[in-house]
Amino acid sequence: MSYFTDFNELKRLKAEVRTIHRQRKSGKSERERFLETDVPPKLLTPNPNQDDLFYIGGHFIPVSKMRGSILTQGVSSSGKTLQLKPQIASAIKATRRGSDRRVIIADAKQDMLPFVAQLTGELGIPFLYFNVSDRRSIAYDIARDIGGRSDKCGEAARQLIPTPRHGEPFWSQAAQALLQAGMLRLNQTKGVNWGLHDLYSMALMAMPELVEFLSVHPSGKRIAAKYLPDDRGGNTQFGFTSQLDVSLRQLEVAASAQYYTPRSRWVSTGDFLDSESVLLIGTNTETRETTNPVVRLLFQNLVNRINSLPDSSTRKIFTFLDELPTWGFLPKIDELLAFSRSKGAVTSLVFQDIEQLNEIYGRSNAASITGNCQTKLLFTPASYDSAKWAVQTLGERPFRRFNYNKQFTYEGITESQSMSVEKDFPLTTGELMDLGIADPFTGSRFIVNPLAGKPFLKYMTPQEIESFQPKNANIPLVVEREPHQYNMPTDFDPNQFKELLSGTFTNEALKVKFISNYEDGSYEQELAKQMFEMFCEMSQRYAREFTQFYGNQQRNY
User: Fold this and answer.
1) pTM listed for this prediction
2) Beta bridge pairs of residue 103
3) Do 463 and 331 share a structural domain?
4) In the structure, what pLDDT confidence band is assigned to residue 233 with cuts at 50, 70 and 90?
5) Is there a contact between 166 and 264 (Cβ–Cβ < 8 Å)?
6) CA 249, CA 255: separation in Å to the nearest integer?
7) CB–CB of 349/72 below 8 Å?
């Protein structure tokens, strides 16, 4: 028995010697060769005869087997978008009538529209585009998503008027309550036929008009009595209404976009999820401040709708969030990643620096967000902190470390070899920083950490990268709205208009001057008086009818 044990030990030692010789020959340690292992078998190579494949870092996986979420991290120009576009294209190709699939794309850099429009047009997939500065945009139908529920009105108010992370939240919370009351009042009197523009107009009301407006609804009456009572100091009331005014004024571009968008192009999250379509959310640096609160509200209601769906093994709802930090704090993103997978949610996040997420979501929530992304594509990091974080996401592994010693003595050279097992990360921060940026001449290098299998180093030639890029439609990136459509129109007040005209034509001095051209007490002077009064009455009537007609025309969605 001892001989047999020695024989096995001999085999083990021989295997170690062979490993030592291979390592010495290659010049690389076991850790250095770790990322050069074979690609996991679940990641397929492209097959032109097979459809329903989801793209991940130059490889594919059947859409039916796609689970969990994907994270892509790297500095600008490192090659993230070159991998994101084929990923989005593969999801769109998998979305067809009867597939029970949908695609949501948040485009922060405004470079997704051409290929998304091209692909959806070729495949005949319904395409919805939301961008408040673009004439082709839909309008988000907030009223239909809220449905008059007080809790949903409160959630919407908190997104449109965010509570500040620093400083006194009291003023914002009061403005949120007033906005919530306004939504309840609009739902009571107009049903679902109202939008962001109505909230904007409400915020600009004078104090007495606002109190009267809110008091139509029982809850609104109580809220108005609490925050805008007659016996409270004027400065406090002014602070509440000013916070409401300032917050809603920042959304004027989004409000005016909905005001000028035909009612037939208002879309709710329910409309989208009931269809098998593609929703592209676009923005630019000029309209980001007015767009982000509306996008956050849209995103929150999308997650709520998704989580209310029954579990499904066939449904897929692909969500792509490019440059995640630019959208600010997206509510319920942690729920989308952690709880919505059973509903068919597949989410792909892209960002540059981990510190951006830490700043917006806090370290704990940021760790939860990134931890719930089971597949990771790691490009050249934006900072040392990002490099350190990326290396740590790969986890420590046991590696055999071989040591060679040569000892020179008068008697000759003595060689010895030893081996130890130590835990270490597969690569260093420096090696990750050395991946470089994507280059049209040298290609792109990045780390793929798949859902199943070991992480591996991926190199793609320029030709390979180009072969996966979707075609672009020859369309403009932006079709600007008319200049006046970036501002809410000023409503005519018929009473003020009537008073203006009445004051002009009933001015006593003007009347005296008009009839002074005729002899006192004459028939002509009496006729002139009657004509003047009749002209004033006609002017007032026509002014009233015109302003009422104008108001109706402006609100005819």
Assistant:
1) 0.81
2) 278, 318
3) yes
4) low
5) no
6) 9
7) yes
